[in-house]
């Protein structure tokens, strides 16, 4: 924690480096190899078709090549009334027999009617039997036995395929829900039912269909307007660049305009409160206290009291005094912060390539997300079919137990539970691999978090190395090394992979714990008592704070690694103590930077958004003929606004890293040097002037 001694040989980022945190580097490489192996194993065992295609009661998916279902691509439900909604059908197994069919039924029919007429109307039987179990062709079997064994559905209703499943063909006629223009149907068990019994499923289907139509319209809008969206994002990029370049001239002006604007607004607030307080003098009831009138839901009642306006005035006066005192006592630190912001703008001007580095980070993170998602899908679909006993009787003791469909009919279950069936439930398995699939999914998530944090760490260390080489150049820009960004990237990969992996590992562990806590909170909702809820809330809050703190420490540790090439723990400790010795400067710089960059993002996103709004609503006469005809003009508009904000965020994240790096270098410079000829400062002339020390020697900017 002690200030460093002067090192006459020190000239910025150390070039004679050695590998740091080698053990962590080896572990990281082994974990990546293991992650690749996990992906290969999941790829061998998994089959995403299990997610894409619906699965029948025998565990085979519809449309599977080289099986009996090859030409049967749609799933048919024997009794759709047993399914609550389409969401249940799509995500869970519905408690009724499911069969793959080549097309959905197009008419109303019941098994009772078809069996009664099969002798003189065989065509009806031939049509109906395609919705029975494969191979069933025994119309003489009693209706009770057929329905008990679920050989055939009790009824079929006109349906249409949706998401590769047969859903009733709903329509509304004069505001009445109908299926094939009928409002009632026979359920095949002697009852006439109203189609409103299917209302829940209908509502779900209609909303899904509407969403699909809505989605198609949005897709059309994107297809027509993508060219203009790209132009909008390009304008956002140019505005972001312009804002950063101009910041060296405007940082101070923007900040002081804002501060004096706030002081002015609060001053007006104080005057208005005094005017209201004075205006209410003598009005009946205005001298009552807040305590006298008690709690009122109508806030306007309080505005009729002099005491309310007096309280507002006192609060605003307090805020005004605090702001003015802070400006008086922190004026020098604010000037340093603004000077560092201007210096950051100048540094980016000399090393423009840094602005495009976020694209590298984005590509690395996109690769990580893609690999994680594909591995997760293959892991989720790498089970064997698991079959369970499905009983019509609720008291059957064998219900939901696993079974083997090949030997099921020879067991006692069919005798003890008449009508029970052995049907497909889900994909799982009993092998060692299948037992640990959940552990593999956790490992997949953990390594994904580790790799994403490593990609971010690599970006931060690379940028820090480039900007540090700018600060420690005695004569700027003559002493800035050639290709500073590329050199810094090479150093980070070659020497500091272990240190970056170590920092990313700590963060990934905390993030995984947060994910698990969120999962537990989601699972325990509704069942937990207030103490459990309170405990979970406290844990989530603590780990959120810990993650924020670690991100801050890591960021500054990577800057120190980029400068000195020491290991992660030493760099984190040195960065922490250096910041603690300059804690007020840190706070001021942080807030000033946050404000200016937030202002920049709003200016870029807002400016491009306004331009896009006028363009897409045909309010710019020059381009009125060029505007594409859209279903919803807000689709490209929102895309341009959000995209512009993200583009600005990408550029400004580089700038924020630049300012943080220059600040740590500045603090180091102050502790290492004293401005004498023997120990000259490396900082710019503007920072020299602000410090205003007698020992300062004149120096080139």
Which key phrases capture this entry?
701 residues, mainly alpha, three-stranded antiparallel sheet, two-stranded antiparallel ribbon, 13 strands, 7% strand, extended, disordered N terminus
Task: Tell me about this structure.
The protein is mainly alpha-helical. Among the domains are: 117 residues, no CATH class; 45 residues, no CATH class. Helices cover 60% and strands 7% of the residues. The strands form six sheets. The chain has a three-stranded antiparallel sheet with strand order 12-11-13, with no helix packed on it. Strand 5 and strand 6 form a beta hairpin. Helix 7 packs across helix 18. The longest helix has 81 residues. The protein is extended. The chain starts with 21 loop residues before the first helix and ends in a 10-residue tail after the last helix.
Radius of gyration: 35 Å
Total DSSP E strands:
13
Number of separate helices: 20
The spatial strand order of the largest sheet comes to 12-11-13
Structural class: mainly alpha
The major pleated sheet works out as: 3 strands, antiparallel
Protein name: Choline transporter-like protein
Family: Belongs to the CTL (choline transporter-like) family.
Membrane topology: Multi-pass membrane protein
Transmembrane segments: 21-44, 226-246, 253-271, 309-330, 350-374, 447-474, 495-517, 595-616, 637-657
